[in-house]
Amino acid sequence: MYQLNNLFENKNMKVIAQKGAYMVFEHERDLSVTPSDAITAYFSSEMNVRKRQVLVNLNGTSTTVQSGAMQWMVGNVQLTSGVKGVGNFLGKMVSSAVTGESAVKPIYSGVGTVMLEPTYKHIILLDMAEWNGSVVLDDGLFLACDGTINQQVVARSNISSAVLGKEGLFNLCLNGTGIAVLESYVPQEELIVFELNDDCVKIDGNMAIAWSNTLSFTVEKSGKSLLGSAVSGEGFVNVFRGTGKILMAPTA
Protein backbone atom coordinates (compact mmCIF):
# COMPACT_ATOMS: atom_id res chain seq x y z
CA MET A 1 0.00 0.00 0.00
CA TYR A 2 1.13 3.55 -0.67
CA GLN A 3 -0.20 7.06 -0.40
CA LEU A 4 0.68 10.11 -2.49
CA ASN A 5 0.86 13.36 -0.54
CA ASN A 6 1.29 16.92 -1.80
CA LEU A 7 0.34 15.96 -5.35
CA PHE A 8 -3.41 16.09 -5.89
CA GLU A 9 -3.83 18.69 -3.14
CA ASN A 10 -0.86 20.77 -4.33
CA LYS A 11 -2.28 24.17 -5.32
CA ASN A 12 0.51 24.68 -7.85
CA MET A 13 -0.32 21.39 -9.65
CA LYS A 14 -3.50 21.62 -11.69
CA VAL A 15 -5.12 18.73 -13.56
CA ILE A 16 -5.93 20.10 -17.02
CA ALA A 17 -6.93 16.90 -18.84
CA GLN A 18 -7.78 13.28 -18.12
CA LYS A 19 -8.60 10.28 -20.31
CA GLY A 20 -8.42 6.63 -19.40
CA ALA A 21 -5.40 5.95 -17.20
CA TYR A 22 -3.74 9.30 -17.97
CA MET A 23 -3.91 12.59 -16.07
CA VAL A 24 -2.15 15.73 -17.27
CA PHE A 25 -0.78 18.02 -14.55
CA GLU A 26 0.27 21.58 -15.23
CA HIS A 27 2.57 23.54 -12.95
CA GLU A 28 0.84 26.89 -12.53
CA ARG A 29 4.14 28.58 -11.71
CA ASP A 30 7.78 27.54 -11.76
CA LEU A 31 8.61 27.90 -8.06
CA SER A 32 12.15 26.51 -8.29
CA VAL A 33 13.79 29.64 -9.69
CA THR A 34 16.60 31.96 -8.67
CA PRO A 35 16.16 35.74 -8.41
CA SER A 36 17.93 36.17 -11.74
CA ASP A 37 15.46 33.80 -13.42
CA ALA A 38 12.30 35.12 -11.75
CA ILE A 39 11.42 37.65 -14.46
CA THR A 40 11.73 35.06 -17.23
CA ALA A 41 9.71 32.53 -15.21
CA TYR A 42 6.95 35.08 -14.54
CA PHE A 43 6.46 36.14 -18.14
CA SER A 44 6.76 32.54 -19.33
CA SER A 45 3.84 31.63 -17.07
CA GLU A 46 1.83 34.57 -18.38
CA MET A 47 2.40 33.31 -21.94
CA ASN A 48 1.27 29.75 -21.06
CA VAL A 49 4.84 28.44 -21.09
CA ARG A 50 4.50 26.01 -18.20
CA LYS A 51 5.82 22.62 -17.19
CA ARG A 52 3.40 19.75 -17.74
CA GLN A 53 3.55 16.14 -16.55
CA VAL A 54 1.59 13.00 -17.30
CA LEU A 55 0.52 10.68 -14.47
CA VAL A 56 -0.39 7.10 -15.40
CA ASN A 57 -2.62 5.06 -13.09
CA LEU A 58 -2.15 1.35 -13.75
CA ASN A 59 -4.79 -1.08 -12.58
CA GLY A 60 -3.61 -4.40 -13.89
CA THR A 61 -2.97 -2.67 -17.22
CA SER A 62 0.13 -1.58 -19.12
CA THR A 63 1.51 1.51 -20.83
CA THR A 64 4.26 1.95 -23.41
CA VAL A 65 6.40 5.04 -22.77
CA GLN A 66 8.98 6.93 -24.80
CA SER A 67 12.48 5.94 -23.74
CA GLY A 68 13.81 8.06 -20.86
CA ALA A 69 10.44 9.71 -20.13
CA MET A 70 9.76 8.09 -16.74
CA GLN A 71 10.40 10.29 -13.68
CA TRP A 72 9.20 8.02 -10.88
CA MET A 73 6.95 5.03 -10.24
CA VAL A 74 5.41 3.46 -7.16
CA GLY A 75 3.46 0.28 -6.44
CA ASN A 76 3.63 -3.19 -7.92
CA VAL A 77 4.82 -2.03 -11.34
CA GLN A 78 7.02 -4.17 -13.57
CA LEU A 79 9.27 -2.77 -16.27
CA THR A 80 10.01 -4.67 -19.46
CA SER A 81 11.80 -3.66 -22.63
CA GLY A 82 9.15 -4.86 -25.07
CA VAL A 83 11.84 -6.65 -27.08
CA LYS A 84 10.96 -10.22 -28.07
CA GLY A 85 14.24 -11.76 -29.15
CA VAL A 86 17.11 -10.71 -31.40
CA GLY A 87 14.99 -10.52 -34.55
CA ASN A 88 12.47 -8.24 -32.90
CA PHE A 89 15.26 -6.00 -31.58
CA LEU A 90 16.81 -5.68 -35.05
CA GLY A 91 13.40 -4.80 -36.45
CA LYS A 92 12.99 -2.10 -33.83
CA MET A 93 16.44 -0.74 -34.66
CA VAL A 94 15.50 -0.46 -38.32
CA SER A 95 12.22 1.24 -37.42
CA SER A 96 14.12 3.64 -35.18
CA ALA A 97 16.52 4.55 -37.97
CA VAL A 98 13.78 5.45 -40.44
CA THR A 99 11.33 7.20 -38.09
CA GLY A 100 13.66 8.92 -35.61
CA GLU A 101 11.81 7.27 -32.71
CA SER A 102 13.65 5.43 -29.93
CA ALA A 103 14.34 1.79 -30.80
CA VAL A 104 13.16 0.42 -27.46
CA LYS A 105 10.16 1.88 -25.65
CA PRO A 106 9.81 0.49 -22.10
CA ILE A 107 6.52 -1.09 -21.03
CA TYR A 108 5.22 -0.54 -17.49
CA SER A 109 2.58 -2.97 -16.25
CA GLY A 110 0.89 -3.97 -13.01
CA VAL A 111 -0.86 -2.01 -10.30
CA GLY A 112 0.58 1.37 -9.33
CA THR A 113 1.42 4.87 -10.52
CA VAL A 114 3.95 6.13 -13.05
CA MET A 115 4.84 9.82 -13.43
CA LEU A 116 6.54 11.04 -16.59
CA GLU A 117 9.21 13.74 -16.83
CA PRO A 118 8.15 17.40 -16.99
CA THR A 119 7.94 18.96 -20.44
CA TYR A 120 7.23 22.45 -21.75
CA LYS A 121 5.38 20.96 -24.71
CA HIS A 122 1.60 20.69 -24.76
CA ILE A 123 0.04 17.29 -24.02
CA ILE A 124 -2.67 15.81 -26.23
CA LEU A 125 -4.68 12.80 -25.05
CA LEU A 126 -5.93 11.05 -28.16
CA ASP A 127 -8.70 8.44 -28.04
CA MET A 128 -8.05 5.84 -30.74
CA ALA A 129 -11.80 5.22 -31.06
CA GLU A 130 -12.15 8.71 -32.54
CA TRP A 131 -9.66 7.72 -35.28
CA ASN A 132 -11.20 4.36 -36.17
CA GLY A 133 -8.31 2.68 -34.38
CA SER A 134 -5.45 3.89 -36.59
CA VAL A 135 -3.51 7.17 -36.71
CA VAL A 136 -0.22 8.26 -38.29
CA LEU A 137 1.97 10.66 -36.29
CA ASP A 138 4.47 13.27 -37.33
CA ASP A 139 8.00 12.76 -36.01
CA GLY A 140 8.55 13.44 -32.31
CA LEU A 141 4.92 13.44 -31.18
CA PHE A 142 4.75 10.08 -29.41
CA LEU A 143 5.05 10.10 -25.61
CA ALA A 144 3.03 7.13 -24.36
CA CYS A 145 0.10 4.85 -25.13
CA ASP A 146 -1.94 2.01 -23.67
CA GLY A 147 -0.55 -1.48 -24.01
CA THR A 148 -3.54 -2.32 -26.21
CA ILE A 149 -2.11 -0.08 -28.96
CA ASN A 150 0.41 -1.50 -31.42
CA GLN A 151 3.12 0.50 -33.18
CA GLN A 152 4.24 0.04 -36.74
CA VAL A 153 6.15 1.94 -39.39
CA VAL A 154 4.26 3.12 -42.47
CA ALA A 155 5.88 4.34 -45.67
CA ARG A 156 4.83 7.18 -47.92
CA SER A 157 2.83 6.23 -50.97
CA ASN A 158 5.56 7.68 -53.19
CA ILE A 159 8.99 9.26 -52.89
CA SER A 160 7.74 12.65 -54.09
CA SER A 161 5.54 12.97 -51.01
CA ALA A 162 8.67 12.88 -48.86
CA VAL A 163 11.11 14.89 -50.98
CA LEU A 164 8.77 17.62 -52.23
CA GLY A 165 6.65 17.69 -49.07
CA LYS A 166 9.72 18.08 -46.85
CA GLU A 167 8.66 15.01 -44.91
CA GLY A 168 10.40 11.75 -44.10
CA LEU A 169 9.77 8.56 -46.02
CA PHE A 170 8.43 6.78 -42.92
CA ASN A 171 6.17 7.61 -39.98
CA LEU A 172 5.03 5.96 -36.78
CA CYS A 173 1.51 4.54 -36.99
CA LEU A 174 -0.55 3.57 -33.94
CA ASN A 175 -3.18 0.82 -34.25
CA GLY A 176 -5.61 -0.50 -31.67
CA THR A 177 -7.87 0.68 -28.89
CA GLY A 178 -7.15 2.93 -25.94
CA ILE A 179 -5.49 6.27 -25.32
CA ALA A 180 -2.34 7.69 -26.92
CA VAL A 181 -0.38 10.56 -25.35
CA LEU A 182 1.24 13.06 -27.70
CA GLU A 183 3.65 15.97 -27.17
CA SER A 184 2.92 19.01 -29.32
CA TYR A 185 4.48 22.45 -29.67
CA VAL A 186 0.97 23.78 -30.37
CA PRO A 187 -1.82 23.57 -27.74
CA GLN A 188 -4.78 21.36 -28.59
CA GLU A 189 -7.20 24.29 -28.55
CA GLU A 190 -5.34 25.82 -31.51
CA LEU A 191 -5.19 22.69 -33.65
CA ILE A 192 -7.49 22.65 -36.67
CA VAL A 193 -9.38 19.38 -37.20
CA PHE A 194 -10.34 18.32 -40.72
CA GLU A 195 -12.92 15.55 -41.05
CA LEU A 196 -12.98 14.29 -44.63
CA ASN A 197 -15.60 12.14 -46.30
CA ASP A 198 -14.19 11.16 -49.69
CA ASP A 199 -12.62 14.60 -50.07
CA CYS A 200 -9.18 16.19 -49.97
CA VAL A 201 -7.17 18.81 -48.10
CA LYS A 202 -4.19 20.66 -49.57
CA ILE A 203 -1.68 22.10 -47.09
CA ASP A 204 1.28 24.32 -47.91
CA GLY A 205 4.07 22.89 -45.75
CA ASN A 206 4.32 20.11 -43.19
CA MET A 207 1.70 21.53 -40.83
CA ALA A 208 -0.26 18.28 -40.39
CA ILE A 209 0.84 16.60 -37.16
CA ALA A 210 -1.47 13.55 -37.22
CA TRP A 211 -3.81 11.97 -39.74
CA SER A 212 -5.91 8.85 -40.26
CA ASN A 213 -4.09 5.93 -41.79
CA THR A 214 -6.99 5.61 -44.25
CA LEU A 215 -5.91 8.82 -46.00
CA SER A 216 -3.46 8.83 -48.90
CA PHE A 217 -0.71 11.44 -48.82
CA THR A 218 0.86 12.86 -51.98
CA VAL A 219 2.53 16.08 -53.08
CA GLU A 220 1.12 17.96 -56.04
CA LYS A 221 1.43 21.28 -57.84
CA SER A 222 -0.81 23.93 -56.33
CA GLY A 223 -1.94 24.92 -59.82
CA LYS A 224 -2.85 22.89 -62.88
CA SER A 225 0.47 23.70 -64.47
CA LEU A 226 4.00 24.50 -63.38
CA LEU A 227 3.51 28.05 -64.68
CA GLY A 228 0.33 28.44 -62.65
CA SER A 229 2.08 27.21 -59.53
CA ALA A 230 4.98 29.59 -60.13
CA VAL A 231 2.64 32.57 -60.63
CA SER A 232 0.63 31.78 -57.49
CA GLY A 233 3.86 31.55 -55.46
CA GLU A 234 2.68 28.35 -53.73
CA GLY A 235 4.61 25.73 -55.70
CA PHE A 236 3.91 22.24 -54.30
CA VAL A 237 1.38 21.40 -51.59
CA ASN A 238 0.76 18.35 -49.41
CA VAL A 239 -2.48 16.63 -50.40
CA PHE A 240 -4.48 14.27 -48.15
CA ARG A 241 -7.27 12.34 -49.89
CA GLY A 242 -9.96 9.97 -48.78
CA THR A 243 -12.04 9.54 -45.65
CA GLY A 244 -10.58 10.31 -42.25
CA LYS A 245 -9.28 13.05 -39.95
CA ILE A 246 -6.32 15.42 -39.91
CA LEU A 247 -4.86 17.45 -37.04
CA MET A 248 -3.17 20.58 -38.38
CA ALA A 249 -1.10 23.16 -36.51
CA PRO A 250 -1.92 26.72 -37.64
CA THR A 251 1.68 27.80 -37.04
CA ALA A 252 4.98 26.08 -37.72
Account of the 3D structure:
This protein has one domain: 4-Layer Sandwich (Double-stranded beta-helix). The relative contact order is 0.14. The chain has helices at residues 38-46, 85-99, 159-163, 226-232, and strands at 13-19, 22-27, 52-65, 70-80, 107-116, 122-127, 134-137, 142-146, 149-155, 170-176, 179-184, 192-203, 208-212, 216-221, 236-248. 14% of the residues lie in helices and 47% in strands. The protein is globular and about 60 Å long. The model is unreliable at 85-94 and 225-233 (pLDDT under 50). A hairpin with a 2-residue loop joins strand 1 and strand 2. By secondary structure, the chain is mainly beta.
Count of DSSP-assigned helices? 4
For the biggest sheet, the summary is:
8 strands, antiparallel
Strand segment count: 15
- Secondary-structure element series: EEHEEHEEEEEHEEEEEHE
User: What fold name stands as the CATH topology?
Assistant: Double-stranded beta-helix
Helix content: 10-25%
- How does the overall form come out from the CA principal axes? globular
Q: At the first level of CATH, what is the class?
A: Alpha Beta
Mean pLDDT: 86
CATH superfamily: Mitochondrial biogenesis AIM24
Structural class: mainly beta
How much of the residues is beta strand, in percent?
A: over 45%
Low-confidence stretches: 85-94, 225-233
Report how far apart the termini are: 46 Å
The Cα radius of gyration reads 20 Å
Number of domains: 1
CATH architecture: 4-Layer Sandwich
